[in-house]
Structure formats: C-alpha cells, structure tokens
Fold these 2 entries.
Entry 1:
Amino acid sequence: MSRVSRQSGILFVLSGPSGAGKGTVCQALMKQMPQLCLSISMTTRAPRLGEKDGVNYFFRTKEEFKSMMEHGELLEWANVYDNYYGTPRKFVESKLQEGIDVLLEIDIQGAMQVKKHYPSGVFLFLIPPSATELQARILGRGTETDESFKQRFGAARYELAMMNQYDYVVVNDVVDAASERIQAIVTAEHCNVSRNLYLLTEW
Amino acid sequence: MSRVSRQSGILFVLSGPSGAGKGTVCQALMKQMPQLCLSISMTTRAPRLGEKDGVNYFFRTKEEFKSMMEHGELLEWANVYDNYYGTPRKFVESKLQEGIDVLLEIDIQGAMQVKKHYPSGVFLFLIPPSATELQARILGRGTETDESFKQRFGAARYELAMMNQYDYVVVNDVVDAASERIQAIVTAEHCNVSRNLYLLTEW
C-alpha cells in the first residue's frame, strides 16, 4: 500500500459572502481537479426533469429528511421555501475514508453548521478582490433597485466579518487564479504534519 | 497600495533528516520561485576564492560574531571546526518587511533554534520517500563502511521523530514534485486567514 493511500481524504468547505463567485470558482476547480468529489446535497423537493437521485441530489421525503436531522446524519441543513436541503454525513465520510477529498460549496450559515459537526474540515473563505469590485458585481446583475443594492452590499460587508472563522482566505480576482490557490491549499493540507504522523510508525 | 503588498513576507525553514535531499530540493525551488530570497548565512571562516561578502556569506570576525550572538542578532548559530556559522536576524527581517518571502535551508538542530527565536516561521520537514530509499541514498554515496552506514541510518531514523515539531512534511520522492509541493505550501500560507485579517479593516 502506498503512503498516499494511508491518508484519509479531507473535507474542503468553500464558502464566502454573497457575490464572491463561489459557484464559478467551484466549477473551475472541479475541471482542474477531477479527483475531487463534489458533495451531493439531500433535498425534499421533487426532482426536476432529467435530475437523478444520487447524482444531482439525494431525493428524500420530509419524514426521511427529518429523521436524518434528528439522528445527526446531516452535516448541515436549511429550510428554503418549505423544502429542506442538507448535506448527508454518510456520503461525505465514506468518500473521505476511501482517501478521496470532498468539496462542499455552501453559504456561510451552512459552513458554520458544518464546522460545528465536522471541525476537522478545512474551511475556505472566498472573497471578491475589493469592495469596489463587489459593488460592480452586484450592480452588474442589473436586477437591483437602490434599496436592494444597499441591502445586498451591507449584507456582504457584514458577512465578510465572518472571515476569522475560516482557515483560509482566497481572493477571487481571476477565477482560474482563485482556483489555483485552492489547489495549492489542497496540496498543502495533505502535507500538514498532523496528517502525516502515521509515517513515524512506518520507519 | 495593492493588497498583496500589505502582507509581510513569510520565513520558510526547509529542514529534515540527513539524506532527505534538502540542498537539491532547495536549488530546484529557487529556480521555480525566483521571487523567494535565500537566506544568507554569516560565518567567521575566511572567504574562499571568488566568494563575496553579502552574496555567498556575510564574513565577520569572531569578535563581531560573538557580539551578535550575545545581542540576540542571530536566529541560530553553530560552531563547526572552530568556525562559527549563523543566520542574521536583521537580513531576514528586513526582507520580510519588504514583503519578500525568505527561504532558509538548515539542519534540524538549527531549525529548532530558529523556531525558538522566530516562531512565526513556517517549518517544513523534508523526508525521503521510504526507509528503503534512504538506505539506497546513503549507500549510493559509496563512502560508507558498515559501521558508518548503521550510524547514519540510525541517526536519520532518530531525526525522523522530530517531524512533529514541524508544520509540514514534504516527501522527496521526485525533486521537482517535492519542490512543487513546497510552492503550494507557500501559496497556501499566504492564504492563511491569520495573514489576511487586515482585509477586514479595508472594506
């Protein structure tokens, strides 16, 4: 058995304020690192045309979902428009045990729940390069009134203060550059001494 | 002023057991990352032909060296065959303040001294890929008797146990791969949240 296979996988949680570009960076990263496994969410909403259970989502009834909540089988969950969404612990942990790294892209509230239930995850905070750039990104959507812009921008500034709950800050100036920084973090974390102490017993 | 220039440089200390290949990896890394500044040692030995003060070494008298030792101006020092060698704190710190990362390649004893005097450094432990490979490397030098081989191999095993004093373990299986892992660690460390909290005051 090679050394690499002795290390279990690592859960990387990609989060950050609204407008940081989590989805875009996540897509770029999955192209650059196909060996990463993207976490699959569980939901109580009905499958849409073409969606498959265990691929797009794990589709479950509300009763099943609530039972999993009560039994601590979700790393995080939220209720959105009367449907539940969550991250099943078992799927993530089985991948990690196989030595596969898992990537979870999630908002800040979800990330804080994951941190509580799975503190050995690595928490990455993606941010826009500047306040000016964030303004431009929010306005660029072209859907904001003055009031809603102020709300979104204010919320993003508030969310930014959550930075100190994370392990790493990744500035999303250029998507591919941000993705490469995350790749570097994945490599570095596998070199972290706490993940390599088993080597001491091998010599 | 750009954000990057607001972060100070980081001191990376590359160390590890005898036979790990520190020098070779260090050379490869300096080629891949010319923006890294290699720490220049101070010594009391006489300059050899072509060696220049402030380039190969800082050449100093024993009196000057001892005065610096006594005034805490060295991050580490050692006496080898009646000459002193050490790492001047001022050179390292001035580079870090300019925002330049500094690389220091040093044996384990020296690294432990640096850790004591400069705990905010990042400490990398380079190791051979396996005990078998270490044996091969030691024997490959062709200069070892049975006895000296046993001594060297035993010392390396003993040194390996120092791993848990370090931040990262880098397996030197292939020199360029090891160097790339170190590059990733450099990138990741700059993303470490503790080095980016100043961003909170900028928004």
Entry 2:
Amino acid sequence: MKTIKLGFLGLGNIGSGVARVLAANKTLLQEESGLTFEIVKVLERDPSRLEALGLAPSLRTEKIEEVTDHPDIDIIIEVLGGQEPAASFMRRALEHGKTVVTANKSALAPTWEILDSAAKQSGAGLYFEASAGGGIPVIDVLNHSMQANHIAMIMGIINGTTNYMLWRMKQEHMSYDQALKEAQELGYAEPDPTFDVGGKDAAFKLSILASLAMRKHVDVEDIACVGITEITPQDLELGGEMGMTLKLLGIAKDQGDEVEAHVYPTFLPDSHMMSAVTDAFNAIFLTGDMVDDVMLYGRGAGALPTASAIVSDIVRASKAQRHEYQRFFAEGNKAKVNNKKAASRYFLRFEGEDTQSLKTALEEKGLKVMKTATAAGQCAVLIDQVSEEELDRALAGCTGCLAAIHAEV
Amino acid sequence: MKTIKLGFLGLGNIGSGVARVLAANKTLLQEESGLTFEIVKVLERDPSRLEALGLAPSLRTEKIEEVTDHPDIDIIIEVLGGQEPAASFMRRALEHGKTVVTANKSALAPTWEILDSAAKQSGAGLYFEASAGGGIPVIDVLNHSMQANHIAMIMGIINGTTNYMLWRMKQEHMSYDQALKEAQELGYAEPDPTFDVGGKDAAFKLSILASLAMRKHVDVEDIACVGITEITPQDLELGGEMGMTLKLLGIAKDQGDEVEAHVYPTFLPDSHMMSAVTDAFNAIFLTGDMVDDVMLYGRGAGALPTASAIVSDIVRASKAQRHEYQRFFAEGNKAKVNNKKAASRYFLRFEGEDTQSLKTALEEKGLKVMKTATAAGQCAVLIDQVSEEELDRALAGCTGCLAAIHAEV
C-alpha cells in the first residue's frame, strides 16, 4: 500500500473538510485507490485548527517553503482562497515539482497560464476539479468524457448565493435586500457580498469551464459581467408571467472565430432543466454536437462537497502516470471574446401598464415584441433576437426603460 | 501520432454512429487525444451498411474470429445488442487480449463477472460507459469522481421510452395505449415494447449502476422489476393533485448489510429535480455522504449520444496504462438484495370518492394516511412509511384497491 504525502496550504473551512474526508472515509479510500494519505505539513497561522482535527502541532508551519520545498511531499492542497499569496505559493510548489490540487478559482483563473507552464516545466500536475461547481464533477467530465464533441454552448448556475437569492425573491416576492439579509443569516453570503452578487465569482469559474469547453483560453478579463444587484421582485414576477425563470448564468458560446462569454442575469423558460435548480445548488448545462444536451447538478459550495472533489483530484493525481496540461496555452490559442454581435432575446421592463403604446413605440425602433405582461403599475415585453449593439441603439432615444435582461428562450 | 486499430461487432444504428463520430470529429479527436483511429474489421451481415459509411467492402466479415483473433486490432467495439451471441463474442475477444468497449447492457449485466474475469486474466480492458445512461458520463463519474463517498442511494430515469410515455400520459391525459402508439410512431418504442415498458431494460442498467455505486455486485436477477403497463392516467392525475410526478425509477439503497434494489413506477415530489426530466431524456441522481446530492442528465439513447460515450471509452482505453477491474468480483462481494423490509410511502388508488371512509378503514389496518385526492369517481391516498410486507398484510383483506405505487416523497 503506497502512502501519498500531502501538504496543506490553509486549514480553514475547505481544508478542514478535506482532512475530515480523508479521516472519515480512510478505509474506503484505501480500498478504492490502493493508497493511503498522510498529512505531513500544514501552512496555517491558527494552531487550534490542527488541534480540532487531532493533527500534531509539529505539522504546523507559517513558512511557505517548509511546505513547497518539503522533500517528502507529493501533493500540495491549496485552499487559501483569494488570488495572493495563493497564486505565488502554487507557482512555487509547481516549480519545486510538487503536484498542486486547488479549489481556488480566484487564484487559478487569472494566473492559469503561468501555473500551467510551471507545472509542465517541472512535470508536476495541476488539478482543479473543485475550482468550479464545487462537488459537481464537471472538470473531469469536460476533460475525459467530451472528447468526441465540439461544444457549442456551456452555461452554468455557478454561484449558489445568487441562485438562493433569486429563488427566494421569486418565491416570496422578496426585495433584493431582504433576500441578501436572509442569505447572510444562513451563511450563504459573506458580510461583504460583492464578489458573489456582482458576478465576479461566477466569471472566474466561467473562465475555467468555458476554456475547457471551447478548447481556447477564455480570459476572465474578457468576460462581460453583470451581477444581480439591480434585479427587483418585479423582474421576477413579470418574467414569471411570461413563463420564464431568472438565473445568474455564466454562458459561453462558440461563434466560429469568436467566443461569446458573459455572466448575466438571464431568463430561461420555466420548462428548462436549469429553471428547476433551486436553493444554493449549482448546475452546468452544455450542448455537444454528438452528445446533445448534458446537465450536471449538485452542491457548488460547502466544506464536504468541495472536499469530495478535492479528494477525487488527489486520487486522480496520485494514480496518473503522466499529468495533463492545457493544449490551448501551449498553442497560444486565446479566445477572441465578443459579446456585442451575438443576438439574444431580451426582457425589457417599463413604468406604466400601457403595453399597446409601448409595443408600437418599440416596433417603430425595429424591435419585435413577442410577449407582454403587466403588474402593479409596471409592464414588461419580451423582444426577439437582437444584438447588444442593436438593442443599445434602439433604446438610446427611449425613455422609461427600467431594466433590460437577457433571455435564453 | 499513434494509430489505434478498431474492430466492430455490428454496424447497426449505434455502430454506424460510432463510425460517423470518428469520421466527423477526426481532427478534434486527434488534437484531444494525440491518437488516430482506424477501422480494420467489421462483423456485419449487411454490406450496404459499410457502403453507406464509405468503408471498404474488404473490411466486412461474417466470422467472429476474423475480428477477435485479428493480430492488429487493439480495441473491439461491441454494439450487437441482445445477450447472445454478443456476450460470447466479448468473452472471446477478451480472452484474446483485446480490449472491449460495449454499449450492450443486455449482454454485460448478466455475464459481467465472467467478462471481468476474462479481461483481468488477459490484461485487456472492459469499458461500458454507454451501457447505462447513453451519452451521460455516469460510469466515469462513479468510477473516478466519487472515491471519497459512501453512496447511500442512487436512482435513475434510465429508460427514455417509458419516461416519454409517462410524461405524455400526464401532459395530455392520454391512455397507456395512446402513449405507446405515439412512442412507437416516433421510434422511441419498439414494435414489441416489452423490454422497455416491462422495466427489464432499466433493471439491466440499474444492475450496472447500483453495483458501481454500492461497490457490491447487484445481480440483475435479484432486482425486483415492475413496469408501467398497469399505470393509468388516473394515477398520474391523482398523484399530480398531491404534488407528485410519476417516473419509472431504478433505485438502489445501501441498507447496511443488505441492499434495496428495484425498478418500480415511483412518485417523486414535483419539486424534485428528477421530476423536471421530460421527453425521452434520462437522469441519474445519487446521494454521497460527502458530496451530498448529485444529478447527471442527458440523452439515454440515440446513435450519436451513445457513440459519444463509446468514443470517450475508446480514448480512455487507448490512453490507459493499466485497465481497471471490479473489486467486488475479485472479493466475491455480492449484494444481498432485500426489498421486503425497506419502508416506503405509497400511493393507493381506489374506486369511489369517499375518502373519509377509506381513511378510517386504512387507519384501522395500521396505515397512516397523509394526503387524499379525488377525481372522476376514483380516489387516492398517500400513506406513510410501511414495508412491502406490512403493506401486503394491510391490503390483504381490503377490497377495491386498484393500484399501489411507491412514493419517494
């Protein structure tokens, strides 16, 4: 029975989850993988976190080199969160030939090319199943089950906080502020919720998922990002009357030479599988040219679901004869992201209930109105496919438009 | 660029699909895998099938040994369907050291132990991603992403024909016969639909999925199987009034020393993700002790989705340094299946609309009525957890019970 020696960067919520999974399901993991796992060093300021897990105080260090340069360590688990110092620490580990398993989209997405290159040069592995979709095994599926497919589109509910909030706002006709407060009370939202509600968390994850799906590097800097802070219960209600459900979606579409890539609040038909995803659950939906539609659903966050993904990476890395690197970096294959040309349907919300005059006014500007709805002094229309450019032009001289929301219907 | 040489057993709908995927996405597959694939021999009676794909007539044979014993062939794709001769042919191939990729649950499930053993002895691989859930990458997920989890429960909508029929029966208040006729016209159901509507197709697939999830061999012979032939639109309507949706589910649950394993029509809450699976789509839902709930959704049948899964197996098999075998066979770890003791809620349908008398009568027999519904001269009750044994006893002296259907609510 081979023993794999592990170093931890951080032993917070996720790191402790990994240690707990390794301890609780030790026998199962031995049987499944033929391996045992030993924690030999932990970068952590707080001694009580080791104590809580029954780990010897001597395993703790506050010096990164005692983990990255440790002669016995095979795999380093990076669960610090945030871009720095996590990204620099991972780079140092990879340069020292240590395989890295990370759950940290904030560090991975912006420095992925540097990390992939460092890994490739030293022959170490870089594994990141837990960095998008939490416990959902979407990275492995994209890497190892979709080789026969050109993927035309991938869309994800990849932020649980906002999914919870939009669900509650619709269900209870709650305001944004009420839903945020509830999410904070449940521990789903941080005291400063900007990273989640502004869409940045989803953009980091979309960068990773879209790159694997499109087989081109979709740089997080190129991903257009609109959060849910401007969404009102009226949007959800009026959209609901049109048979649509609002989700914060990360979407990437193959548009030939260009890629469409954005995180937007987006309406889906109520009958779409993604509309059934409630609470803080995540889901990733893709369309391949051979497999057609596939969806993966599960918990996108939480210590144990995330640890489940990290441990599957630890086993995968331990058994790999040769680690895999991203072809798109080696080939300099960067996606040209363009969101201005792609056509979409739009939900538009206005003051007043006079849908007939509104319809006439919008149609004079070249927009085709497909559906209308009214509620409590406001109205909304669903307009047919236009590009963002065309919509901006049409709405330029138009007063009273309170919201314009993408609709994938 | 290494060339992998392929032999085909059968070039029907699925086999032709594989050949089409290999041709259509040849460049992508080369880039993704670093491999090229060449079809060198095809067991097939009908020359026109090779012709339709532009394959040379000289590749065709009607002698199995010309494929299984072919010195150049690396991997044999078995897509004949049916138990025999497919199972014997696979065994022969494995004994000759040829890795086998199969989509054939009817041949795999009943002879799996023999095939696994033959593969292990010769060092060949046995791959079967397409044998359950079609294009859905559920086998890979169970094998390589759930190592950190004890799986308490797995349930699947793993027969598209019956899912289509139940969906249409509810949607259009259609009779079973009408729904079957429609499914046959669409090509979803065979002229003799017994294999699908009787639940046997789902039982073969459940045997495979449940064995991987429970890490014990769940023999298809031990799986209790009830199809949808007795389901009426009244069941769907009355269940609908109770907020439930009917699905034909293959379910396996870890009950400690025993395993519950059955294919039954089963009610789920309308809010359950599986209730949103319409048309002929499939989905597999599981609960792990660490990852919590995970669901995978996609096309469970069709030439190209199935071929997508087969091609992912071909790539996986080609890149494997060492093939994997089932630990439960090596350890003689067979599941003790017992469906009599496990408690479940039940939907019961009766003649008449007098729910009050019915409730009293059922409660006198020790059944707890949770919900009632009436429609057009019939009524139904939802009763709380009882075992099959207890239910049988309670209903023994009870007249007028028209249907008793499992409810996972």
